[in-house]
Amino acid sequence: MGNAAGSKKKYVVLILLFLGWCLGNLDRFVINYSVVDITKDLGLSASAQGVILSSFFLGYALMQIPGGALADRFGYRKVIVTAIFMWSIFTILTGAAWSAISLIAIRFLFGLGEGSFFPSGSKAIASWFPLNERSRAMALMLSSGAIMGIATPFIYAASSGTIGWQKLFYIIGAVGLVVSFFIFFFLKEPKRAAIQEDPSGQPATKPKSTLKTVLKTPMIWNLFIGYFSIYAVNWGLSAWMPTYMINVRGLDMTQVGTLSIFPSLAGIIAMLFSGYLLDRIPEGKDKKAGAVLAVLVGVCLYLMSSAGSIYLFITYQTIIGVLFAFIATLIASNCLKTMHESQVATANGFINTGAQLAGFLTPMLMGFMVDASGGSYNSAFVLLVVFAVLCAAALMLARPKANAQAQAIADSVTN
């Protein structure tokens, strides 16, 4: 395969990953807005609401490592197509939920279905893009979350008063089934030479893609803790801010959607820029910069909780979105540059398990805290500040890792 043809194909792959993850983020974000109406229809408490929001992340977290291992063993294409098909089925079933128990079970299975997409997508990026382009490619795929953060509240606001939340889930799930067939036909894996050589001219050794091997890498544990912590902040805010802004700040869903544009738009721009920047920052210095930004996230969370106006509140939330974009892209793309390609999906699956465990625990803990404090969100904000500090500590204590494995495959990717 020629360089020009390979270059075109890698961008086709990236576009397909971006579209697939836009759908995945829409499917998971829409519950954060529809849960307000679901709670009224089913008569649920704040604690039950928190468990529903968290159940997805338990299933999602449990599937990260198996999904990554399957992608490393059988290739990312089969895993991605299966993931989209399965989560679309459970999106449809979400609209048919009739009780808190049924909704919890469906959202858990939904998480299992979606859980293998991210590690498989990471492997696709590592398979097609050279080292100095992987942060940018990862940033583009991750930016789908910020884009859906803008689109989802408007989609829900437009549909809630017309077709209702049940039919909206039916429609989104049906679109997902169509997308899964589309990606089945157009997503490709690169053809590789039977033997690759490292920069010294010797045959490259392909390390075993086992979880045990991945877990022996100290850097992976730092990234796991950092990703858990920063996503605890992210999922805590995204899961509870719509409810908080309606119940505490007195806004309606349209106002919530309008104000949500600013943090999400800033997050998109920041994430794309951070990918470009991270491809140029030396290993080690990037983590120190991330640690400083995580401390600033904690400061902004405190200021956010005490903001005297909704506009000041949104300003701090926007700053947090910008800081989060850099930290998330840093962690998500780091092992793509420091691990052998045959281990990337397993490694990123493990790291992303941390993020999804945070998604499981944080909304549920915040729900319990809100109930226990009689509707106050102060203790919930304190919890998020603690997580921001923990992220800073994990990144600051991370030691630069020798990049020999990654360098050995830097020129093996067909552009």
Layout of helices and strands:
Elements: H1 3-42, H2 46-74, H3 76-94, H4 100-114, H5 117-128, H6 134-160, H7 164-186, H8 211-215, H9 218-247, H10 253-278, H11 285-305, H12 310-338, H13 344-372, H14 378-397, H15 404-408
Structure at a glance:
By secondary structure, the chain is mostly helical. It has helices at residues 3-42, 46-74, 76-94, 100-114, 117-128, 134-160, 164-186, 211-215, 218-247, 253-278, 285-305, 310-338, 344-372, 378-397, 404-408.
How would you describe what is shown here?
The chain is mainly alpha-helical. The protein has helices at 3-42, 46-74, 76-94, 100-114, 117-128, 134-160, 164-186, 211-215, 218-247, 253-278, 285-305, 310-338, 344-372, 378-397, 404-408. Helix 1 packs parallel to helix 6 (134-160) and helix 6 packs antiparallel against helix 10 (253-278). The radius of gyration is 21 Å and the shape is globular.
Arithmetic mean of pLDDT: 82
Give the biggest sheet: none
Give me the number of helical elements.
15
The count of DSSP E runs of length 2 or more, i.e. the number of strands, is: 0
Shape: globular
Query: End-to-end span in angstroms?
Result: 9 Å
> What fraction, in percent, of the residue positions are helical?
over 70%
Rg calc: 21 Å
